[in-house]
Amino acid sequence: MRRFHTAYTFGGIALAAFTLQGCVTRTENLDNLNVITKPYSLHFADTAGLIYSTYDGQRFNVFSNTNGIAIEALMASGNNVLMRTQNGTNVFVSESDGNNTTFNVTFKDVNPAAFGPTMMINLPGYYDSAGRKYDRIYIASSTGTGIAYQDYNGHLDSAWLYPRDTDLGPLGSNKVTSFTKLENGAVIAFDNDTRKIWIKPDYVTPWTSKTGIGLPAAGGDRMFIISQKNDILAVVHMGGADFGVYRSTDQGDNFSKLPNITLAGTDIKDITAAAAPFGKVLIVCTRDNGIWRLSGQGVWQPSSVGLKFGARVYAISAKDNVFKNDRKGEYVFVATSDGIYRSDDLGQTWVRLEVPAVKPVFTAMY
After folding, report:
1. 269 by DSSP, 3-state: which?
2. Where are the domains of the chain?
3. HSE (CB half, 13 Å, CA atoms) of 7?
4. Which neighbouring-strand residues pair with 29?
5. pLDDT by residue (tens digit) across 141-196?
């Protein structure tokens, strides 16, 4: 079994987290741990395979490198951290009951066609038959009906199961590459290779297929799905002949294309990541053309204020803090070729975090 060790150092720089705390400039609204009842938890990874975590954007822990292999997907479930390395078919877990000291293989059959952070999804708040609360994880699988799941935070001693719902087809007939969750609790599964879509309204209702009318034909550029409230958004990744974002307001039966993102009359196609933080605004990240927000009037607006010119944006995540008065602080983070940036205004402006990284090129985030 392949095993990766975890250490709280920064590359070859042996600095403990409490030492780093004194080296990093504090930023307004983030160093209020005395009044925050539920801080956010942000994880991100660099091209050297190092995984970092922070609860306040100022103090950072780091997990060991993964033999120099970059991370394709990163996720937290409960107190565990899961990851898939680039082009790998295994998912590794670092378990909190082992003090997060190693990464071990928890799942071996990832669909090779799945890519990016949406190839697995964590659904908090699942209650098992005994009334115990766990997180359910879905992973894009190369076996079964294309979906594997587990209800125990990816623990090594817990089995992965494969749904056999009728609409998922016979064993081996379908695959899945991407997942998202709607505000109403429904889980959506999508296969980029066939453009097929399935929905699971809740934990007990079977998966059912949707028509996906209006999506680009199968065999073109790669797509992944995200959600905004109860809408499904299908995003073309690094587009070519196909490009842009498609929206479904009827849970996957019909899609219509959103307006193209254009700059000086040229269509922007190089989308790398997208998110709809807190359901409030759609944000799209690109490799060479910065960050864009879709306004309430349905117009794409450039939103790269504070971002270093020329920085490539690879990943995006939204987090919130809950304060004693139940107020929430909402933050959006992006992983770039110039470090980690944070926005306190839903992506309109950005501030670079002082992450003590040897090589601050970050490509994965959760």
Report:
1. coil
2. 3-365
3. 13
4. none
5. 999 999 999 999 999 999 999 999 999 999 999 999 999 999 999 999 999 999 99
- CATH 2.130.10.10 given to domain 3-365: yes
Contact 82, 91 (CB under 8 A): yes
Residue pair 67/4 in contact by the 8 Å Cβ criterion? yes
| 121 Cβ neighbours under 8 A, 6+ residues apart | 75, 137, 138, 179, 180, 181, 187
pTM exceeds cut of 0.85: yes
The token duo for 155 is: 């623990």
What is the rounded distance in angstroms from the CA atom of residue 194 to the CA atom of residue 42?
A: 33
Amino acid at 53: S
Residue in 136, 154, 143 with CA at minimum distance from that of residue 89: 143
3-state class of 239 per DSSP?
A: coil
3-state secondary structure of 137: strand
Classified as helix, coil or strand, 284 is strand
Residue 134 CA to residue 132 CA, distance in Å, equals 7
- Give just the sign of the alpha carbon dihedral 184, 186, 189, 194: negative
> For residues 310 and 111, what is the distance between their CA atoms, to the nearest angstrom?
33
- 50-103 residue pLDDT tens: 999 999 999 999 886 567 789 999 999 999 999 999 999 999 999 986 567 789
Give residue for tokens 């269509």. 267
Per DSSP, the three-state class of 331 is strand
Cβ atoms of 62 and 8 closer than 8 Å: yes
258 Cβ contact list (under 8 Å, min separation 6): 244, 245, 246, 247, 294, 298
CA distance 4 to 307: 33
Closest C-alpha to 340, from 62, 128, 3? 62
